[in-house]
Design brief:
79% helix, mainly alpha, 16 helices, Growth Hormone, Chain: A
């Protein structure tokens, strides 16, 4: 993977990718070390960590919508910069947290700022990139995200290997600094003029039942997110004869696959009809992937189990990339041009909900139920993928949009972009 393929050409999109890269490196290091940091350094019980993080992300998922609305009304660039700095400050506060209540307070700020930052960046993207190029742009950003997470995970692995307090603190300091760099890069982007206040109801997305239905279905599709981080590792160690180190190899396979093929996959999605087809195909592949994973429990030896798990992971990779490309297109094209941040705030809650409830669902289905649980999971995702077509058409009829919804509105948004610091 060359830099030219990973990063887009010079301009606003490259700066967005660099901002994504900077904070994802910090996040990658944070993700692999945070659990042990909070238990070994801070001294919190695992149950309290889980409770605190669940509460924090539950609040974050709720406030994502009003923060997205704030980005629409006050300007997405400035809002994104402030929320990136707030996220960095929250991470930095973890360095001095030594009790449960301060931990929950810091986690609330972290989850709230992260949720709002995601919505604000989507609104910023919509104001700087035309509708026809959005899905490809998001594919570039996803590839950059995976590259940053991979680098960060390596750095976090070094800290885990050392296992010292200083090593853990260095990782958290790195994450806080990464968000400061992210804020500085975002500030170099052209400013997108805020949408004039006064039109429409406050938080209208919550009353937009067709769009809410699309967002809920997307949340079901996103249950695939905790598979490689939780579902497959638990299944592999509890139900198969495959070696435990394969967990890491499957994660690396997925990360490199997204980096190499997400942009290419996204080229097949150019409007609502192609997005619906991509989501439907992803549902079929998810059912196939789940069935293949279930076969790995057969008593056929370690090598056979490992091969089956690799095959299932490859199919999962294809399903993930199609689902991502299709959902990105739908999330943007079905949203009113003047409310991108607000609508993306709701759409983005699917990620938070999947990460919060996904572990509970996957543990119950896969670890407790076994092979039938895999088939139930695949069937749920397949059903949601096929329901996405009628839901998207309902949303189109409700909004009076066409198969290339949002193009005109986005052109207006781009026209409203005002000059800001030149970038890259």
């Amino acid at each position: 993977m060359t830099t030219s393929r990973l990063l887009p050409g010079r301009g606003p999109l490259r700066l967005l990718a660099l901002a994504q890269l900077s904070n994802s490196v910090g996040d990658g290091a944070y993700y692999v070390t945070s659990a042990l940091y909070f238990t070994h350094v801070v001294g919190l019980a695992p149950a309290k960590i889980g409770l605190g993080l669940t509460a924090a992300w539950a609040v974050g998922s709720v406030v994502g919508v009003p923060l997205g609305r704030f980005a629409d009304r006050r300007g997405p660039r400035g809002t994104a910069v402030l929320l990136a700095l707030a996220t960095g400050a929250a991470v930095a506060s973890f360095l001095v947290v030594r009790g449960f209540v301060p931990f929950v307070a810091a986690a609330l700020v972290y989850a709230t700022a992260q949720s709002g930052l995601a919505a604000a960046r989507q609104a910023l993207l919509a104001g700087l990139v035309g509708a026809a190029e959005r899905t490809g742009a998001l594919a570039h950003l996803q590839s950059t995200l995976n590259a940053g997470l991979a680098v960060g995970a390596v750095l976090g692995g070094v800290a885990l290997h050392q296992g010292t307090r200083t090593a853990y603190l260095s990782v958290f300091a790195l994450d806080a600094a990464a968000f400061a760099v992210c804020a500085a890069v975002l500030w170099r982007l052209p400013a997108v003029a805020p949408v004039a206040a006064g039109g429409g109801e406050r938080l209208a997305v919550l009353r937009d039942r067709p769009y809410v239905a699309v967002a809920l279905l997307n949340t079901v599709l996103l249950l695939r997110m905790p598979l490689l981080s939780l579902g497959v590792p638990l299944w592999l160690t509890e139900r198969t004869q495959a070696p435990a180190w394969l967990v890491s190899a499957l994660f690396v396979l997925n990360t490199l696959g997204v980096m190499a093929f997400q942009v290419r996959t996204a080229r097949s999605v150019s409007g609502i009809p192609t997005a619906v087809r991509a989501v439907r195909r992803s549902g079929v592949l998810m059912l196939v992937s789940c069935a293949v994973f279930a076969l790995s429990a057969l008593d056929a030896g370690a090598w056979a189990a490992g091969g089956i798990l690799v095959a299932g992971s490859v199919v999962l990779l294809a399903a993930e990339m199609l689902q991502s490309a299709g959902s990105w297109q739908l999330g943007f094209d079905l949203a009113p041009a003047g409310r991108i941040g607000e609508y993306q705030g709701l759409f983005g809650t699917g990620v938070t909900v999947a990460r919060t409830l996904g572990p509970l669902v996957l543990t119950a289905l896969l670890v407790e139920w076994g092979t039938p649980g895999w088939l139930v999971l695949g069937g749920m995702i397949l059903a949601a993928s096929y329901a996405m077509g009628p839901a998207a058409r309902w949303a189109q009829r409700s909004a009076g949009t066409t198969g290339t919804a949002g193009t005109a509105g986005t052109a207006g948004a781009v026209g409203r972009a005002v000059s800001g610091p030149s970038g890259g």
